[in-house]
Design brief:
CATH superfamily: NAD(P)-binding Rossmann-like Domain
Bound molecules: NADP nicotinamide-adenine-dinucleotide phosphate
Strand order of the largest sheet: 3-2-1-4-5-6-7
Largest sheet: 7 strands, parallel
Mean pLDDT: 96
CATH topology: Rossmann fold
Radius of gyration: 18 Å
Order of helices and strands: EHEHEHEHEHEHHHE
Strand content: 15-25%
CATH class: Alpha Beta
Distance between the termini: 22 Å
Number of helices: 8
Number of domains: 1
Length: 266
């Protein structure tokens, strides 16, 4: 394949949770594929983490303009999200991109307790606000913005999912419900918007901060020791390995819009 065929042309890319972990690796992994005039927006709460991701992106492809957006998606209002999107993508005279890719990657584990112990109502509400509600709003705002500013661009939405969207894990009720809910939202989006490509991608177990929390905070003894064994036996994946697989899936386009595809799927 020639270098030309290997690029995605001029793109707008939005990655939530871009300050570290899988989100930073998505930014770094996707950057080399982007053509002249591409803009990549990274959203997270931590300015320092976004600055380090910006460094990775610039090193990977100097043609890409990286825009860090410091925003707490757990509390951000619709107006704040809209303002961030408009200032990143809505400038006068910006060239129209051929593709727009939206990676809904930000996510948290929440309290890893048994459901009978989840009595902190505020925590539960905040959990779903970040992991479900903000995703619905940001998604709708970006699709509307793209359809009004650059209607001929193709839109691709990638929801970072998990095996936990399909399988129940003891003491992971919030996480499992959040991931299952997100998968279903994006399956619905796929049926509503035939011109939008939607992928639910489960990245596999990653060797990063979130897995560290899984090993230490999971209330269920059996599950906690399973996570420790995976680490000790070298079964965790690097974020960049998982991102390479995601990019291969996006390039091959073998999935049906709305599908759940796992790192380990053939
Ligand atoms: N790690 C795994 O083994 C694994 C497995 C399957 C699926 N996943 C999924 O992969 C995705 C990425 O997770 P990860 O493993 O990379 O986790 P991580 O290392 O904990 O990173 C989470 C990212 O989300 C951002 N974030 C958290 N709360 C936020 C908020 N309120 N507002 C804005 N951004 C926020 C964090 O940035 P700030 O802290 O700077 O805000 C960070 O960039 C998640 O959806 C996760 O569920 C992970």
């Amino acid at each position: 394949m020639s270098g030309q065929e290997d690029t995605w042309g001029s793109c707008w890319v939005l990655v939530t949770g871009a300050s570290r972990g899988l989100g930073a690796a998505i930014c770094e992994g996707v950057a080399p594929l982007l053509g002249e005039g591409s803009r990549m927006v990274g959203v997270a709460r931590t300015a320092g983490g976004l600055a380090s991701t910006e460094g990775l992106v610039k090193k990977a492809n100097a043609k890409v303009t990286f825009i860090p957006v410091v925003l707490d998606l757990g509390v951000a209002s619709k107006a704040e999200m809209e303002a961030a999107l408009k200032s990143s993508f809505g400038g006068e005279g910006l060239p129209q991109p051929s593709r727009v890719l939206l990676f809904h990657n930000a996510g948290t584990l929440g309290n890893l307790k048994y459901l009978k112990d989840l009595v902190d109502q505020q925590h539960v509400q905040q959990y779903f606000n970040l992991n479900i509600c903000s995703v619905v709003t940001l998604n709708a705002l970006l699709i509307n913005l793209v359809q009004s500013l650059t209607p001929s661009s193709t839109i691709e939405v990638i929801n970072i999912s998990s095996l936990a969207a399909l399988q129940p894990f003891k003491s992971w009720g919030l996480y499992c419900a959040g991931k299952a809910g997100r998968d279903m939202l994006f399956k619905v989006l796929a049926t509503e918007e035939p011109n939008v490509s939607v992928l639910n991608y489960a990245p596999g177990p990653l060797d990063n901060d979130m897995q560290n929390a899984a090993r230490t905070e999971t209330a269920d003894d059996e599950l906690r020791s399973m996570f420790s064994s995976m680490k000790n036996e070298g079964k965790l994946l690097s974020c960049s390995t998982s991102v390479s697989k995601l990019i291969d899936i996006l390039k091959a386009k073998k999935f049906k819009s709305g599908d759940h595809v796992d790192f380990y799927d053939e």
